[in-house]
Amino acid sequence: MRLHYDEETEAFRSELRAFLLANLPPAEERDEPVRSSAHIPEWARRWQRLLFDSGWLVPGWPPELGGRNATAVQQMVYHEELARLGVPRSCNPQGLSIIIPSIVDYGTEEQKQRYVLPTLRAEISWCLGMSEPNAGSDLAGLRTRAELHGDRFVVNGQKVWTSGAHDADYCFCFVRTDPAAAKHAGISVLVVDMESPGIETRPIAELTDRDHADFNEVFFSDVEVPVENLVGELHHGWAIAGGSLAHERGMLWISESMGLEKLLERAVATARAPLPGGRRLADDPALRDTIARAYVQAQALKLLGYRGFAKFAKGAASPEHSVLKLLGSELRRGLALDMGEALGPEGLDMDRDDAPSGNRRDDTAWFLLWMQSFSNTIAGGTSEIQRNIVAERVLGLPRR
What we know:
The protein has helices at residues 7-23, 27-30, 42-54, 72-85, 93-106, 109-120, 237-249, 252-272, 285-313, 320-343, 366-373, 383-394, and strands spanning 126-129, 145-149, 152-160, 170-176, 187-193, 199-203, 216-226, 230-231.
């Protein structure tokens, strides 16, 4: 079977590729380390503004919002090409892909005027205040409270694993405004200025990156937030939570699929490279079988993603994406572990240069890749939560 697109879609792809190849920031700039997912270096600001001005930032949106009214299939092609080239749209992905779409969907006209264009033009950055010490995948268990006093909310509580909080200008914060309501009710969303008195951020050191911390603990102590910063209706933030995560997952399978393909290319390159003593991992039939199995699984997931996208484009539910998130993240983790164990001590070598892309970011030691891969099985809903979703919503199994 040969999968292909119609002429109009391929013309869209050609125009996009020509633009990207003609305007890509230099590799030395793209390889520059960023402090966090809310830190936007100057080169990234210029790049995001160029995408916006050229209609390539959010192609499915109208031109005034950085798009060109692209079809659903064209948007998929757009994300395919970005992932293939390893080009980020933004160094503040949660702001661009989750928060601003939520404000467009639920915000007031004043909020849209104040936050949407500055974010799209990389003038401000965001963190997402969801997870708490006792409310990770179970977001409805959040306890951070916001009490309304006249024209102000007063916020008290704690968030954790808040990416980029120490660099962000604003937090899209989920808070409990009616503690007497049922678990999924009584939640609201506030836009919180991160310079407000009473906010303390504590970056969490990571074993996989000694120089830069992205995750944070965030503490709110009598933080005052103007009532006009309420997004959507009071006590009805749960609907926004579902919408926010839907924005995150909408095209996630494309980058996950392309990431798996690149990881497999790296595995093949590693297997073919000579080790001390002249031996090659490719000479081991067991490892060849491991890589072949991973390749077959990656192709199956890619095709499953296309099937789910076809449903999504028609407005139907696409439970395939929960399967993709679950199996894709675990396949990545398993392959990294298999390659690291096959290499033995060589798998710990931080200076190995066996990435076929030539991109230094792809040269990460296999055991370090394995440690990093655990985040994929947690972020956006843990593997355990994904299994529950598949069991209940796809297979129709009872909750207990």
